[in-house]
Amino acid sequence: MTIMFNKHLQRPADDEARNERVRFSDLEAGYSGRPVLRQLTAHIPALAMTALVGPNGSGKSTLLGVLAGVIDATSGQLRYAEGRPPAFVPQRGAVGDTLPLTARQTVEMGRWNERGPWRRLTRQDRTVVDSAMERLGVHDLAARQLGELSGGQRQRVLIAQGLAQQSDLLLLDEPTTGLDPEARQRITALLTDLIADGTTVVQATHDLAAARSADACLLLRDGRLVGQGPPERVLTPAALSRVWQPS
Ligand SMILES: Nc1ncnc2c1ncn2[C@@H]1O[C@H](COP(=O)(O)OP(=O)(O)OP(=O)(O)O)[C@@H](O)[C@H]1O
Q1: GO MF terms on file (predicted)?
Q2: How many structural domains compose the chain?
Q3: CA 59 / ligand 1 centre spacing (Å)
């Protein structure tokens, strides 16, 4: 699927396109009166982990929002390879504490794309929800109110909701921030398994070790792309110190 804004997207060669889950070109986006992303041209490799790296406010969440379809680009082009609609797991702070939902109801919302909001779930939906909660180790929290959970527990519930969408494109905003080492390891292993099973994963992260173990990196500064490619090429000491220098 191609979403066109107002520019022409150069088509990649066929063999390149086969390895790309998403491609965007001259992408611009922001909030009312605040442009954020400027002239981004890059691709997200299929069946791989891409890390979005950059200082606070560099535009990582905004880019994820655009890829997820929750923020409209103002110009440029965005093309998705064939596949299911993306599953988006926002930062846990972006989800209200006061939502009157249990952990299980939160994960069940991951089935709404298939079933429609508040519709009765099928047995298969319930199996998918159970399995997602098991994989994130949150099944014992099922009856607890989302707002009563610790930050790390809530984070894992939100990732389980993303998993329950059974998308082949999973977009995660800082999925391991604030998690204890065991939970972090569990999520890292889970993401590796998902990729092996046919999912493309994009995560915004401040964890440089996680970014270094990704297959590809997009490095952002002030809404501009200042590096893309394999982490060992992009996350060099020189590039990192340039990006983290005060502007
Ligand atoms: N809802 C919003 N309305 C207006 N401006 C916003 C909104 N959300 C983010 N911004 C601004 O957009 C810019 C990019 O923010 P964004 O959240 O995309 O950065 P980020 O790289 O994800 O940052 P962080 O590492 O802190 O999560 C910042 O200047 C921010 O203040």
Answers
A1: ATP binding
A2: 2
A3: 6
With contact defined as beta carbons under 8 Å apart, do 201 and 50 qualify?
yes
Q: Which structural domain range is residue 97 located in?
A: 92-166
Q: How far is the CA of 67 from the centre of ligand 1 (A)?
A: 15
pLDDT digits (tens, 9 = 90+) for 191-221: 999 999 999 999 999 999 999 999 999 999 9
CA atoms within 13 A on the CB side of 22: 29
pLDDT per residue as tens digits for the range 82-94 = 999 999 998 876 6
Query: Nearest C-alpha to atom 30 of ligand 1 is from which residue?
Result: 57
Say whether both 122 and 64 belong to one domain.
no
Which residue's CA lies nearest to atom 5 of ligand 1?
A: 31
Q: Is residue 53 part of a domain?
A: yes
List the one residue out of 85, 90, 33, 27 whose CA is nearest residue 218. Answer: 27
Alpha-carbon span 113 to 226, nearest angstrom: 35
Question: pTM of the full predicted structure?
Answer: 0.91
Q: 143-194: per-residue pLDDT in tens?
A: 999 989 988 889 899 999 999 999 999 999 999 888 888 888 888 999 999 9
